[in-house]
Design goal:
The chain is α/β, with parallel strands linked by helices and about 425 residues long. The chain has two domains: about 150 residues, Aspartate Aminotransferase, domain 1 (Alpha-Beta Complex); about 230 residues, Type I PLP-dependent aspartate aminotransferase-like (Major domain) (Aspartate Aminotransferase, domain 2), CATH 3.40.640. About 45% of the residues lie in helices and about 15% in strands. It is built from 16 helices and 15 strands. The strands form four sheets. The protein has a seven-stranded mixed β-sheet with strand order 4-10-9-8-7-5-6, with helices on both faces. It has a four-stranded antiparallel β-sheet with strand order 11-12-15-14, covered by helices on one side. Strand 5, helix 6 and strand 6 form a beta-alpha-beta unit. The protein binds pyridoxal-5'-phosphate (PLP). The site of pyridoxal-5'-phosphate has 14 residues, from helix 5. It is found in: Cytoplasm. InterPro entries: PyrdxlP-dep_Trfase, PyrdxlP-dep_Trfase_major, PyrdxlP-dep_Trfase_small, Ser_HO-MeTrfase, Ser_HO-MeTrfase-like, Ser_HO-MeTrfase_PLP_BS, SHMT-like_dom. Homodimer.
């Protein structure tokens, strides 16, 4: 069993909080973490996040700050920017957005006026809240029009996207999403965006690590702006980046600061720089391809066990399971699996007849377990646990869940997680 990490000052100052952190370390060590937007960052990224860089204010950009004392901060941010540009092949990078949602908000601020039309994939079809969905500020302050996937294929219908774009003439088009198990065809979106003269944004929050590692095509040659979080497959700290062609650099920078944000989180910028250095190494390419290989092997094993997968499988790190045929609601399954030591999230499936807070599906992914070293060889076992867990949820067999939990912890004890202690 892993021991809790040593945080002596934290334990002395705030034992209550330290105990919660220790419990979380144990939880992350002992469970199969399958939420596809999560990962394990390296010890180096954790250390960068915990540095005195958090003490420094630095509104502005390197060489153009509103505060003094930037002797070390400027080179830190410049390192992150240059590494982002090199890794993704972009003309320009802004590493200051606090997270993915503010990054997307900055894109709207740069390219659209309130009330203008913006277009994205609808949330229940796999898009993100910030792609113009109604409850989000982006859907309230702009006129959001939304495309989806085809009922028969579970994939984007580019005829529908083109027709909608021609009819609605959006200023900004977002492609990418949070529950998209298939390759995003950036070139097809670019053709449509060009035709209607819209700014095309690729939101690669989920797949940035796959793009960086060469396991998903890059949007950079095709789109105006790339938006990404840094904490999902890219395996960095919680944060975000915007990348673009030179022509949009000024507009985007101005939108992030002073348009939307104040001082950048320099400890996060430092950790982003570290993560980008890690992502440029050959072993990260291996990681990215292994994430996809694991997801494909997992999808195949699930199909063999009679699971219904949205779009019939996966091209990336993510598998969306429609549990309708198993007669278990997504939320019931997700909560049971949590008790079985398998952490997933319940999720809508396209054309879901159920409500968003109790939908028909669960969303799973392989980034975290691949970071621990699990391979295709383990995926039949993972699929078997998922089936036993869902079946136990159906029958209300609590003891079966406890058995799975013990088996999961037993396997994982042989695969230590980055950034977490081992026994
Ligand atoms: C995760 C995600 C975001 C938002 O990121 P936060 O950091 O949670 O704000 C934006 N877009 C997509 C497609 C995402 O998956």
């Amino acid at each position: 069993m892993p021991l809790p990490l040593d945080h002596p000052a934290l334990a002395a100052t705030d034992p209550e909080l330290a105990a919660l952190v220790a419990a979380e370390e144990r939880l992350q060590a002992d469970t199969l973490r399958m939420i596809p937007s999560e990962n394990y960052v390296s010890q180096a990224v954790l250390e960068a996040t915990g540095t005195v860089l958090t003490n420094k204010y630095s509104e502005g950009y390197p060489g153009r700050r509103y505060y003094e004392g930037q002797q070390n901060i400027d080179p830190v941010e410049t390192l992150a920017v240059e590494r982002a540009k090199a890794l993704f092949g972009a003309d320009h990078a802004n590493v200051q957005p606090y997270s993915g949602s503010p990054a997307n908000l900055a894109v709207y601020l740069a390219f659209a006026e309130p009330g203008e039309t913006v277009m994205g994939m609808s949330l229940p079809m796999g898009g993100h809240l910030t792609h113009g969905w109604g409850v989000s500020a982006t859907g309230r302050w702009f006129r959001g029009v939304q495309y989806g996937v085809r009922r028969d294929t579970g994939r984007i219908d580019f005829d529908e996207v083109r027709e909608l774009a021609r009819k609605e003439r959006p200023k900004v088009i977002f492609c990418g999403g949070t529950a998209v198990p298939r390759t995003i065809d950036f070139a097809a979106f670019a053709e449509i965006a060009r035709e209607v003269d819209a700014v095309l944004v690729a939101d690669i929050a989920h797949i940035a690590g796959l793009v960086a590692g060469g396991a998903h095509p890059s949007p950079v040659p095709h789109v105006d702006v790339v938006s990404t979080t840094t904490h999902k497959t890219l395996r960095g700290p919680r944060g975000a980046m915007l990348m673009c062609r030179e022509e949009h650099a000024k507009a985007l920078d101005k939108a992030v600061f002073p348009g939307l944000q104040g001082g950048p989180h320099n400890h996060t910028t430092a950790a982003i720089a570290v993560a980008l250095r890690e992502a440029a190494r050959p072993d990260f390419r291996t990681y990215a391809h292994q994430v996809v290989a694991n997801a494909k092997a997992l999808a195949a094993a699930l199909l063999e066990r009679g699971f219904d997968l949205v779009s019939g499988g996966t091209d990336n790190h993510l598998v969306l399971i429609d549990l309708t045929g198993k007669d278990v609601p997504g939320k019931t399954a997700a909560k049971a699996l949590d008790r079985a030591g398998i952490v997933v999230n319940y999720n809508t499936v396209p054309f879901d007849p159920r409500k968003p807070f109790d939908p028909s599906g669960i969303r799973i992914g392989t980034p975290s377990l691949t970071s621990r070293g699990l391979t295709e060889a383990h995926m039949p076992q993972v699929a078997a646990w998922l089936e036993r867990g869902v079946s136990a949820a159906h029958k209300g067999e609590e003891a079966a869940l406890a058995t799975i939990r013990a088996e999961v912890a037993d396997l994982l004890s042989g695969y230590p997680a980055p950034g977490l202690p081992t026994a």
